[in-house]
Amino acid sequence: MQPPVETQATISTIAGLHAHADGQATLQGWLYNKRSSKGLHFLILRDGSGLAQCVVAEDKVDAASWQAAEAATQESALAVTGAVVADDRQVGGFEVQANAVRLVHQAEEYPITPKEHGIEFLMSNRHLWLRSRRPWATLRVRNRIIMSIHTFFQERGFVQMDAPILTGNAVEGTSTLFEIDYFGEPAYLTQSGQLYGEAMAMAFGKIYTFGPTFRAEKSKTRRHLTEFWMIEPEMAFYDLAMNMDLAEDFLTHIVGDVLRDCAVELEALERDTAPLERVQKPFPRLSYSEAVDLLTSDKTAEMLDARLAALEAEEQQLKEEQAENEKSYGQAKKWRKRQIDQRTIEIHKRLAEIEEALRNIPEWKASARNFEWGGDFGGSDETVLTWHFDRPLIVHRYPAAVKAFYMKRDEEDDRLALGMDVLAPEGYGEIIGGGERATDLAFLKKQIADHGLPEEVFTWYLDLRRYGSVPHAGFGLGLERTVTWLCGLDHLREAIPFPRLLGRLHP
Ligand code: 4AD
Ligand code: MG
């Protein structure tokens, strides 16, 4: 029997092909696409690191290899050995001219085809959909963000520490708790590692947690998952202003890394990078009261009217283009028909977005205008606020009534808590929530009681205010919100490998 082809040449990843230019290499992967003509198969192979075209010519390979190339169907597993040739016109810049092909596994008919699929179908096949181009690009950006987060904190002397996932107390209100039975005692999946982060900051100075968090979000929105990943720095001897400075440095660092290292992924996602290039310090900062003034102002109403007018004009233009395309379709050449089909998909997608915006904006305009001081901003209010700025917006000093029990009060105005949110631009809204923490034991005890929380489970937390209580602050960044923003997605469900949402537990 022939030894497997891959033992005859060095095994390479597609991303590593450049190291084998003008030599031989074996790729191991899955068939992404195939074009065939007489005596030739063009196999587009994917191996997770990239895509590469492998050319199999009947007169250059043995019968078994030719058979394998013939038989290979979408997502069949293959090993292809051949000459590595630089070719700028190819995806990835290299082509492999095969001299041996081995079929590792013949795939059954694959459910995800190049045609358009609905999102529910794709989500139900998420375990397979992960292999497609868009999830590939998105989740590689996620990976780059994770790495960027670690280097940012590690380079600044923060210690990464893990908070428990099973907890005995609520952090962010009692309405979104997942309760479980912990050997007869009620316990909860953590909503945030913050309280433990505070204990760890008193022990290590500057820490950050990076872990899964859970919220029983009972409504379906684009911005909420029931399981998501949060990064929570917590720093002893930091006040609100230092906290905001850190958040600003943190976000500019992440965006810079992604822009520098994820050009291929962002292009695959058709992400316009110009708005990301503008994410530079300083970020605008508004107090909550200033944000309310802006939200309810004529300036906001005019900005929204201008948006509506621009969207209506764009809608008109797209409809005219579509009518033109339909008129010329009958007489069009084959290549032009294909071009029109492609464009039609784009136009339909954009028209659906515009239609949704034209429906939403008048409602958002009314709710912005009628916003009353004291309430929490809704998703649409955040979106509207971000449209005034070309970079992330920091809103600070919220009414204490809409924030968590642990927030420090503003000495200048007791109605206010020293909290801050960072809102991502382009309508994305809140990605960071945080603030300065209350340090006084008696105040915190009262807060716990006022929020209807049981003091017994916070005994350990209150100890932090008994032994060397110091000013401290921190924040939480939502990882999926960040991925969604940087990738330009319209829903958080694509920003995590296997999303957990209301009504979605499988796969
Ligand atoms: O604003 P939140 O609720 O703040 C906290 O949990 C604080 N304890 C953090 C701290 O100060 N250490 O949540 C922080 C961030 C939000 O800004 C958002 O990005 C994300 O977590 N987040 C969610 N992401 C996805 N799905 C959800 N249901 C989310 N809820 C919050
Ligand atoms: Mg928040």
Describe the structure.
38% of the residues lie in helices and 24% in strands. A hairpin with a 2-residue loop joins strand 2 and strand 3 (40-46). The radius of gyration is 27 Å and the shape is globular. The protein folds into three domains: 5-105, Nucleic acid-binding proteins (OB fold (Dihydrolipoamide Acetyltransferase, E2P), Beta Barrel), CATH 2.40.50.140; 124-296 and 371-495, Bira Bifunctional Protein, Domain 2 (BirA Bifunctional Protein, domain 2); 297-370. It has helices at residues 63-71, 119-124, 126-129, 133-155, 194-204, 240-261, 263-268, 274-277, 288-295, 298-329, 334-369, 379-386, 441-450, 459-463, 479-487; strands at 11-12, 24-37, 40-46, 51-57, 77-86, 94-105, 159-160, 166-167, 179-182, 185-189, 206-214, 227-236, 285-287, 393-399, 409-410, 413-424, 429-436, 472-478. It is built from 15 helices and 18 strands. Helix 4 packs across helix 6. Strands 7, 11, 12, 13, 14, 15, 16, 17 and 18 form a nine-stranded mixed beta sheet that branches. A five-stranded mixed β-barrel has the order 2-3-4-6-5. A three-stranded antiparallel beta sheet has the order 8-10-9, with no helix packed on it. With 507 residues, it is of the alpha+beta class. The model has no long low-confidence stretch (mean pLDDT 95). It binds 4-amino-1,4-dioxobutan-2-aminium adenosine-5'-monophosphate (4AD) and magnesium ion.
